[in-house]
C-alpha cells in the first residue's frame, strides 16, 4: 500500500464534529487528520514497527527496503512519504516486523523522528541509525562501517561567543559535550553482525562525534564566514583520542534514548559508513558506498530482529 502524505489543510477526511484546525495538541506531540497522524512523519498508530533502522538519504531507504517482504501474502510493502521529508517502509525481515525510515540530516530531523516514532509505537523500541560520516583516523579506511560502541559526543557552535564575527570575552567558539553512551547490548550485536558481513578490517567500534552543522562545527574552512574553527578537529581528537567518526545525527538519537520514559523503553545504537577520511583526504567510490550501505543495513536488521524487546 502506498499512502499519500496527509494534507493538514484538507478537512474532508475529518468527522463533521471535528474542530477545523490545522492540527491538534500544539503543546504536546501534535497530530493531524483522521486517523490522527503525527505531524512530521505522517504516521498513524500501528504503521511503524518497534524495531527501526533509521537512515538519512531516501535512496538508502529504498535500497534497504528491497530486503523486506510485505506483511500480508500477496500484498504490498507499506510505504509512506510525508510532506515534511520523511520516508517510511514497514514490512517483514526474516519473518519479523521492522521499519526503515529515511529522516534527512541533522539534529532537528533526528529529534522529530525519535519523538514522533515514540508517540506512534506502543511498547518497547529499538532504533539503529545507519548513516555516513567523515573518518577521524587515518587507519580507518573509507567504505568501512564504524559502530558507536563508545557512544557519542556533541560539538556545538557557541553562538553566544560570537559578536560581529569575532569571538569575545575569551569564550570558546565551540562547546564539546561529555559522551552519551549507546545501548551496549544492541551496539555489540550491530558490530558483530557488521564484522560478519564486511570483515573485521572493514568494521570498527569507537566514539562518534556529532556536530550541529556540516561546515563550521566539523572544522571545514570557509573564507566567506568567521568560524574560528581552524583547530577544532584537532582539539576534539586531542580531548577524545578514541573518536573515530564525525557526522550530524547520532548524539541526538542516543541522548533521547537515555531520556525516554520509562527508562529502557527506547534502546539506541548507531553505525556509519566512512565516506571520507579527514586526515588523508581519501573519499569512497560510489560502488564502495552502495556495497557498505547494503551489507551494513542487512547486518543491522539482523541485529534488530535478534534483540529481545
UniProtKB/TrEMBL annotation:
One Gene Ontology term from the biological process aspect of the record: uridine catabolic process
TM annotation in the entry: none
CDD domains: NP_TgUP-like
Residue segments, region Disordered: 1-29
Ranges of Basic residues composition bias in the record: 8-20
Gene Ontology terms, MF aspect: uridine phosphorylase activity
Superkingdom of the organism of origin: Eukaryota
Gene3D superfamilies assigned to the protein according to its UniProt record, in alphabetical order: Nucleoside phosphorylase domain
A GO-annotated cellular component: cytosol
Nucleoside phosphorylase domain sequence ranges: 54-275
Protein name (Swiss-Prot/TrEMBL): Nucleoside phosphorylase domain-containing protein
Species name: Alexandrium catenella (Red tide dinoflagellate)
Amino acid at each position: 500500500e502506498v499512502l499519500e502524505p496527509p494534507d493538514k489543510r484538507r478537512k474532508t477526511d475529518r468527522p463533521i464534529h471535528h474542530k477545523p484546525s490545522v492540527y491538534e495538541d500544539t503543546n504536546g506531540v501534535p497530530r493531524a487528520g483522521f486517523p490522527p497522524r503525527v505531524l512530521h512523519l505522517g504516521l498513524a498508530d500501528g504503521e511503524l514497527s518497534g524495531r527501526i533502522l533509521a537512515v538519512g538519504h531516501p535512496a538508502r531507504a529504498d535500497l534497504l527496503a528491497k530486503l523486506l517482504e510485505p506483511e500480508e501474502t500477496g500484498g504490498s510493502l507499506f510505504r509512506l512519504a510525508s510532506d515534511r521529508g520523511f520516508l517510511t517502509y514497514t514490512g517483514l525481515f526474516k519473518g519479523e516486523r521492522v521499519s526503515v525510515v529515511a529522516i534527512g540530516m541533522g539534529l532537528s530531523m533526528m529529534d522529530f523522528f525519535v519523538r514522533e516514532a515514540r508517540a506512534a509505537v506502543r511498547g518497547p523500541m529499538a532504533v539503529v541509525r545507519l548513516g555516513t560520516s567523515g573518518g577521524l583516523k587515518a587507519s580507518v579506511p573509507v567504505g568501512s562501517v564504524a559502530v558507536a560502541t563508545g557512544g557519542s559526543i556533541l560539538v556545538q557552535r557557541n553562538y553566544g561567543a560570537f559578536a560581529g564575527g569575532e569571538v569575545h570575552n575569551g569564550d570558546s567558539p565551540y562547546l564539546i559535550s561529555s559522551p552519551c553512551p549507546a545501548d551496549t547490548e544492541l551496539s555489540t550485536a550491530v558490530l558483530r553482525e557488521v564484522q560478519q558481513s564486511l570483515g573485521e578490517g572493514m568494521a570498527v567500534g569507537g566514539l562518534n562525534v556529532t556536530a550541529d552543522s556540516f561546515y563550521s562545527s566539523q572544522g571545514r574552512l570557509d573564507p566567506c564566514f568567521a568560524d574560528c574553527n581552524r583547530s577544532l578537529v584537532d582539539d576534539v581528537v586531542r580531548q577524545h583520542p578514541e573518536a573515530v567518526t564525525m557526522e550530524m545525527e547520532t548524539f541526538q538519537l542516543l541522548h533521547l534514548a537515555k531520556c525516554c520514559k520509562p527508562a529502557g523503553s527506547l534502546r539506541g545504537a548507531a553505525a556509519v559508513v566512512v565516506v571520507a577520511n579527514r586526515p588523508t583526504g581519501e573519499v569512497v567510490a560510489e560502488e564502495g558506498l552502495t556495497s557498505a550501505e547494503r551489507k551494513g543495513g542487512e547486518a543491522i536488521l539482523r541485529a534488530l530482529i535478534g534483540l529481545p524487546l
